[in-house]
Amino acid sequence: MLASLLRSTLLFAEIDDDSLERIMRAAIQRNLRRGDVLFTEGDVPASLFVVTTGRIAIANRSIDGRESVVALMEPGDLFGEMGLFDGLGRSAEARALERSDAIEIPYEPVQLLYEERPGELWSVVKLLAARLRSMDAALADSVFLDVTGRTAKRLLELAGESDEFTLPVTQEELAGMVGASRERVNKAIASFVKLGWLAQNDRRYLITNREQLSIRSR
Question: Among 58, 101, 143, 207, which residue has the fewest nearby CB atoms (within 10 Å)?
Fold first, then answer.
């Protein structure tokens, strides 16, 4: 199971079996409760992580305490690799949004792999390209989508394939993901309910018109 999980990531998808086995031997299982922090901004990095269950928020905080969720890591997602290459402090905080499990992989065996087999660094290039594409998409959202559009997009992402879902984050955390105040995000959700695109009961949501909600998210 661990091997298939690591193989599903861009960083480890194509490495040889012996190298993968060495990395797996160094891996540590991390069990997290909601609110547990894996690392904070500025921490000295020593390992990367792969989510196995749950959701991990990657977030930055402003000087006045406001939070912006820059990425949401779900099962199969890898994060925390930047320090492997530049040695600088963590650029953001990683916090469990719900009960989650993650695999922690120390940098040392990964660095040894790249020293022994420099050709494997092409996997790093693929990972960085994927990160840049994600950043481009996030930048486009901030430029071309208003708060209502970004709220629609985040709700669809959190719902996944299901029309009925429980919001796995607080209203404040959702606002951080949207990049707006909680009041403006709540106003957007209220407008979807009024239009008949969404039904809400506390943190339970039912998408009643996915087509219109999808159109509004573009």
Answer: 143
